[in-house]
Amino acid sequence: MKFIKIFLLVFLFVSVQTILGQNTQRQLLEIKNNLSEIKPDKLEIMPSNNVRTKKKTGLAVLYSLLLPGMGELYADNYSLGQYFTIADAVGWGVVTGYSVYGKNKEDDYRAFAKTYAGVNLDNKDSKYFATISAYENITEYNTEKELYRQFDETYDINEYNWSWENQAQRKEYRAMWVSSEGAYNNVRFAVGALIVNRIISAIVAARSVSAYNKREENNLTWNINFSTRQIPNLQSGVVLNFRRRF
Fold this sequence. Notes:
Layout: H1 2-36, E1 46-47, H2 57-66, H3 70-74, H4 78-116, H5 126-131, H6 138-147, H7 157-160, H8 167-218, E2 221-229, E3 237-245
């Protein structure tokens, strides 16, 4: 009888442990399944897709020095930079136009001097062509220089000889020479304007980058959302949504 009681007690103990073990395993399995249903975006930081890095001032300046307006384009300010690009295009158009015009006029006055003043065009510099526009012949020029004892500025009559038939020819030649020199002066002015345009564009580009970076810093926001989630067989939990946007 005593043996039967002991056997029943052992049987009940083993049965209880088995039942408890099964319930524990079942609960753990349910907890695992419930956890797997939780969406990842509820547990991790979600990076923004529109993250934008800061712009570099040196790079913007370099772009504008190479092509005005490109530094502003790099800094998202091409609404202003487009005017520098247009000005650069106009400047190069002026340089090209006046260069062609000046060269044509130069060819004209050189040919005119050879035909009507007997000028040998070989090895003659710009100063010589300016001189013959002011004096009727080489004798008149040399005489004036000798009078002022500027002997080092006189010309060799065999190599630099010229003689206009009359003042009208000389003046016609001078008009062509003045047109050519005026065109070349305009070219130099346009080149200076191109340089100034690049410098101003570079300054504006640097300021645009500074404004861009400051604007991006001000646009930095932090979004934190709290919500509750009921998980079966578990206590209610708090879910934190944490997002950063640039």
